[in-house]
Amino acid sequence: MSRVCELSGKSGLVGNRVSHAKNRTKVRLLPNLQEKKFYAPGLGKFVKFRLSTSALRTVNKIGIEAYCAKEGIRLG
């Protein structure tokens, strides 16, 4: 399973870990993904997503159906 948010599409990136001596080591910076179930009143059932915490905050604020409509994602 890839480490990509199913709703926002947020994924990891590559950066450098820099020591005091300015030595650079490659490091993967991964999104904070959580698995969460939401109730979709339009479908009348729960839908499960693996989403980033920033997308989770937005879904909690405006609702799962409004978020999917805004992003152009079909539920179900």
Structure write-up:
Belongs to the bacterial ribosomal protein bL28 family. This is Large ribosomal subunit protein bL28. GO terms for molecular function: structural constituent of ribosome. Keywords: Ribonucleoprotein, Ribosomal protein. The structure is a single chain. By secondary structure, the chain is α+β, with helices and mostly antiparallel strands. The protein has a single domain, classed as Ribosomal protein L28/L24 (Ribosomal Protein L24e, Chain: T, Roll). 24% of the residues lie in helices and 37% in strands. It contains two helices and four strands; from the N terminus they run ββββαα. It has a two-stranded antiparallel sheet. The chain has a two-stranded antiparallel ribbon with strand order 3-4. Helix 1 crosses helix 2. The chain is elongated, with a radius of gyration of 16 Å.
- Biggest sheet architecture: 2 strands, antiparallel
The beta-strand count equals: 4
- Give the C-level CATH assignment: Mainly Beta
Mean pLDDT comes to 95
SSE blueprint:
Elements: E1 13-18, E2 24-29, E3 33-40, E4 45-52, H1 53-62, H2 64-71
